[in-house]
Amino acid sequence: MSRFTDKIVLVTGAGQGIGQAVALAYAEEGATVLAADRNGEAVERTIKSIVSSGGRGSAYTVDLSRPEEIHAMFASIRENHGRIDTLINNAGLSFWKSPYDITLEEWDYVLHTNLRGTFLCAREAARLMREHGGGAIVNLASTRALMSEPDTEAYAASKGGIVSLTHALAVSLAEDRIRVNAISPGWIETGDYGKLRKEDHEQHPSMRVGKPDDIVRACFYLTDDGNDFVNGVNLVVDGGMTRKMIYEE
Predict the structure, then answer these.
(1) 155 tagged catalytic
(2) H or E element in which residue 121 lies
(3) Element at 235 (helix H, strand E)
(4) Residue 139 phi, psi (nearest 5)
(5) Which residue in 60, 100, 155, 221 is the catalytic one?
(6) Are 22 and 211 within 8 A, CB to CB?
(7) CATH code that applies to domain 8-243
(8) Which residue of 107, 115, 208, 242 has the fewest C-beta atoms within 10 A of its own C-beta?
(9) Which of 201, 211, 237, 239 is nearest to 25 (CA)?
């Protein structure tokens, strides 16, 4: 029996990249996967791949910046599935613009999608989880919550908020047996890994750029019921880059 057989797992941002890899991996481990993404065609492809491989799942087209769409998704989940055991809050986006140039609308869209959307999904999932003895929530933050490149203020603020939101929820939801953790990925290549340069890999203490499977394994660890003593943490998965001092010569 696979480790997540009979579990119902919701993955947001499951149309591509890390979210898609996570959704496919939970399905391979026996879970029923509920995949959500604002790109309806992409998330349908994810579920089609799961079903064609003998798995089970449903697709939801949802813009997480719109609370009414989040609430409608969870109403549908309650009606059709009755519960959620695991939530992977992966969806996120950004505008890479100077702090002098980013508009208020762009700032709000990033914060509403990444931070408010994460909170609303966590809250609605928790309402279902507490009715069935608890569950596990994993929020995808970023190493940009801890360090920055230029012109990433909205993204950094949203991901820093997710790290703080995570430990707050872990404490608030403890009595309902819901554990909440975060993962902060570093460079996770979701495109053509073979096109990366030697220096791209060697800048990491682990001597390679990350892959979506690295985040999959972290999700598995944090949502495995046997690891229920791990709660409220921010697991940095970045090949050691945030621990490396870099000086220009």
Answers:
(1) yes
(2) helix 117-129
(3) strand 234-237
(4) -105, 125
(5) 155
(6) no
(7) 3.40.50.720
(8) 242
(9) 211
